[in-house]
Amino acid sequence: MKKTIYLILGVLLSCQLFANNLAIGTPVYNGTSHTLTFTIKWDNSWRVNSGPSNYDAVWLFVKRQPCGANGIWSHALLSSTQGDHVVSGTNANGLVIDAVSDNMGVFVHLGANASNQIISSLTTTTIVLKLTENYNPTLSGSSSATADNWKVFGFEMVYVPAGNFSLGDGRTTNTNNFSNGNTTQALTITSALQASGLGAASNYTNASVYGCSIPLPSTYPLGYNGFYCMKYEILQGQMVDFYNTLTYDQQAARLKVSSNRVLTSTGQYIGENWNALGIYNSTTGTNNSIPATITTSYPHIPMGYMNWQDLTSYLDWSGLRPMNEFEYEKACRGTLTAVPFEYPWGTTILNGGNYDNRFWAQWGATDTWNIYDGACRNWEDNGPIRSGFAATTTSNRSQSGATYYGIMEMAGNVSEQCVGGGAGFDYSTFTTVNGNGALTNVGLADVTGWPLDGGISSGTIIKGGDFRTYGSTNQLQVSDRTNYAGSTDNNATNRQRYIGGRGIRSF
Fold first, then answer.
1. CB 328 within 8 A of CB 416
2. Nearby residues of 256 by Cβ (< 8 Å), 6 or more positions away
3. Whether the Cβ atoms of residue 215 and residue 426 lie closer than 8 Å to each other
4. Contact 150/74 with Cβ under 8 angstroms?
């Protein structure tokens, strides 16, 4: 599968990047050094020090299944010491590994010596990760560890650097738009605002009902500080990985949500085989003991039918967190001046197109798309298409549908679920705390401060529209807050085929 993104490297300089094709080799565990050794490769990595001044990275995390019948998969903690993880052998690409303080994983990316470089095809590189010894079950003295099953998971992310940005786009026809208090001017988010807290809703909306019911403190992330954002929406293949590491009880609980398109772990489809939404059980589970084996025919297609609990469970499991609507605008707009009614690709041009040759074959992993400004999958009720579908070797940012930082499909395809909104709900306790890799016994996220459920007055908001918002194109715009009060589409008892999501990570 090949996907392409477009980056602005400066006012006059631009380049085209192919992305994805991430390949992670089978890990080998060393019981003496408590390390995992494997290979990694992905296409067209970049690091630039002008324009967006950012880079792409791969987030890697590890799951372990103890040897023995029906061993339970759990998160393997990695060392937080920077020097414990190494790039082994020849490092022709200049890759570096960044440890994180909570032991949830590592970031791999081009080092500083690769600034203003784009590597079209990284050579296969060997990575050695150090696991902690305070792992449960422990690694020290565990003779079975070398026989255990180990899996290294990863996905591409994009670094969004710290800096000022405009919140709201200055529109005058949408009363729930972010603004500078009671004016219609965009609000500039600065380090001073982050340090002091944004405060009451009247400071960032023109009516209290459109914001948080409690003043936002300095611990609430306003988007000023840097973070990593998933380059693509969560894919069906990634959800397959997730489901296949759950216990029977967790898996069954997650799959039994009431809907005529969401089925149980009895060998049937989750979300049915409806226009490339076809996750299903290839092996039926055994009641209360052995989970089903989940698979998909479309691992490269974004996951639909996700409610808020599906999203947060996946993010907690992978060591990420939800993004809020402030961070959504920062990831789309970057440091550029806000344009009223702009889309994530920086213009007011939208070309979703009818269901013609532009979409006909886009369920395939390598199908191509004709070049159009304002490229967006929003015109037909026929399901999402592959991530990165609009980008080609000659397309620019607008034609690729990319954000300022090179993040794809922040409008159209499937919707983005974010923390935020209004209608009298308190989400002020949300912070930058990331997922801890563990779930409850029914497969739910357990991170303090995250909204427990989506829906009306839940502290969640749906952004970016989806593949069937051709009648409500305003919802595709960066600053649109049509769903400021939340939506029943993403609550615990409902799933809709057009709802998806992605995660971010603070560090």
1. yes
2. 262, 264
3. no
4. no
Identify whether residues 79 and 130 lie together within a single domain.
Answer: yes
Query: Does one domain contain both 8 and 105?
Result: yes
Cα separation, 487 vs 277, in Å, equals 22
Tokens 């015109």 map to which residue? 379
Label the pairing between strands 293-296 and 416-419: unpaired
Give yes or no: residues 464 and 441 share one domain.
Answer: yes
Average pLDDT for 151-171: 95
State the average pLDDT over residues 250-276: 58
pTM: 0.92
The number of C-alpha atoms within 13 Å of 452 and in the hemisphere containing its C-beta is 4
Give me the pLDDT at residue 369, please: 67
Q: Is 305 left (phi over 0), alpha (psi -120 to 50) or beta?
A: left
> Are 138 and 208 in a shared domain?
no
Among residues 108, 132, 159, the one where a domain terminates is: 159
Residues 392 and 284 in one domain: no
Residues 6+ apart with CB under 8 A from 82: 97, 98, 99
Phi, psi of 400, deg, nearest 5 = -90, -15
Final residue before a domain boundary, out of 280, 299, 318: 299
CA-to-CA distance for 337 and 431, rounded, in angstroms? 27
Strand order of the β-sheet with 269-274 is 269-274, 277-283, 293-296
Same domain, yes or no: 291 and 341: no
The secondary element (H helix, E strand) that includes residue 313 is helix 308-318
Q: Are both 204 and 101 inside the same structural domain?
A: no
Q: What total number of domains does the chain contain? A: 3
- Give 402's contacts (C-beta < 8 A, 6+ positions apart): 5, 6, 7, 344, 345, 391, 408
What's the average model confidence in pLDDT over 404-420?
96
* Residue 251 shares a structural domain with residue 399: no
- Residues with Cβ within 8 Å of 406's Cβ and at least 6 positions away in sequence, in order, are 5, 6, 7, 17, 46, 52, 54, 56, 158, 231
Spatial distance between the Cα atoms of 497 and 495, rounded to a whole number of angstroms: 7
Task: Supply the range of the domain harboring residue 99.
Answer: 3-159
